[in-house]
Known about the structure:
This protein has helices at 13-21, 27-47, 52-65, 69-72, 80-107, 113-116, 126-141, 145-156, 161-168, 172-193. By secondary structure, it is mainly α. The radius of gyration is 22 Å and the shape is elongated.
Amino acid sequence: MAKSPVPPTELSDVELVDNVLRGAPGAIDAFYNRHSRLIYHCIRSRTGGQDVDDIFQAFFERLLKSGFRALQLWQRGSSLPVYLSSVIRNFVTDFHRSKRMREEAVGGTMELEPLSGAEGETITTAAQLKELRHIGVRAWAVLEARDRRLVCDRLHRDLDNETIASRLKLSAGTLRTAMSRAQARYLAQVRQLAPEFFPDRA
């Protein structure tokens, strides 16, 4: 006789997460029902109530789009609520950083250092500069995660090499190489999106 499935409410967190990762029917709903309140309150405690609903929605969208990668990284045997709190803390920080960058780009306060004087070209009008900043954000968004972080830390947060190397646990030499390549890939994306700003030299 076939064994009856265990009701979701009686599953352990390990069993629940394993069901989510293997795509078991109803597993995502069961995960949401069990942990959405915890996630919401963690976000609220990190933000003081600001943007809670937007961050809550964005968090679950990220989980879905990433194939629940955060749950794949959870170490079985440790507390899932404690782990989720840590994931949410990092997500809230990234959410606010990205929002601030978008607002600064629209407001005209974000400087894209390698672009403002790239190849000796001068952006002469506010409209052109605003358009280029939008393109800069789009180019940043398609970079790989490590390149995005390097570009953000250097160009937008204006961190020094020592601080960035410490944050990423890189040697000074490795950081220089990684930073140079990240900036080159970033500029290549911008050039691809906006070739009119970078006419070929004769």
